[in-house]
C-alpha cells in the first residue's frame, strides 16, 4: 500500500461500475480513472445537466471511455427505486457510494428524513439493497462507501436518527458518516455469513478540495464561512485527484479486507492510501444491527438475499 498511486489502479476491463455523485470532485475522478482502466461506468447523478456534462468532459479526457449517465437523487427513494429498476446491465462489479452532503442547514428529503442522514446513509442503504441481486451476480464484486474522519465527532443516536430533538449541522453530518461505517460493518458481516463473493469496504478522502465544503455555507448564506472554506481548499487541502486515491484503492486493489477503512496516510489528511483509524463505536455489532433494522423500516428496502 505504501506509495500507492493512480498508476497502480489495475485493469478493469469487463467490469461494470456505478459511481454516485460522479459529476464532480472525488466521484468524477473515481469514475474517470475506472473508465481509463477499461471499466464500463455509470455516472449516477442528481442533476441531469451536470451528469451529462461530466460524461462529455470525461469522454474528452479518456477517448473511447465506456461511460453513461443515469439520474439518481439519493434524497428521493422513488428516484432510487427507479434507478435500480432501470439499471441496464445483468451484473454490477463495483458500487461506489460516494455522493454526499455536508453541514447543511436543517432540511428534509422528499421522504421526510433529515437531509444529511437521508442522503448520506439511507439513500445509499436503499440503493445497495436494491442493486444486491446484480452485485451477487458478479464475481468478486465490491461495495465501497465513502465516509469521513468527521465521524469521530459523534456516534449515532438510534432514538433520534432524524435529529428531531435538536439539530446541529456538524453533529448531524458526523452521525451520517458514522452510519456509513456501521452500514459497512453490518453489510460485511452479512455478506460473509451468506458466503457471498462481495467485499464491503469504506474509504475517506482526508481533506480534499471539492465543492462539498462550500455547499452548506452557500445554502445558509454564510458568506464569511464560504470564503474561509475556499481559502482552506486553496492552501491546505489536497486535490480531488489525490482525495480519490483511497476510494480507488478500496475499489480496485487486491486483497482489500472486508470492513476496512482506507484514507490518506498522513494523519488521515493527505498522502497515499493507508489503513485509517476509526472510532470504536463504528464496530459495535449491536448498534450496527439496530441501525440496519431501522434503515430497513424507514426505506422499505430489505436485503432478503442475505438473510438475517
Put the structure in a nutshell.
This protein is α/β, with parallel strands linked by helices and 308 residues long. It has helices at 25-36, 48-61, 77-85, 115-130, 132-136, 169-194, 212-220, 223-235, 240-243, 245-252, 285-299; strands spanning 16-20, 40-45, 66-71, 94-97, 141-146, 198-203, 261-266, 270-275.
Report on this model:
Helix content is 43%, strand content 15%. α7 (212-220) packs antiparallel against α8 (223-235). The chain is of the alpha/beta class and 308 residues long. The chain is globular and about 50 Å long.
Please tag this protein with its features.
single chain, 308 residues, alpha/beta, eight-stranded mixed sheet
CA radius of gyration is 18 Å
The helix content, as a percent range, equals: 40-55%
Major sheet details: 8 strands, mixed
Task: Give the strand order of the largest sheet, numbering strands 1, 2, ... along the chain.
Answer: 3-2-1-4-5-6-7-8
Global geometry: globular
| Count of runs of 4 or more consecutive helical residues | 11
Structural class: alpha/beta
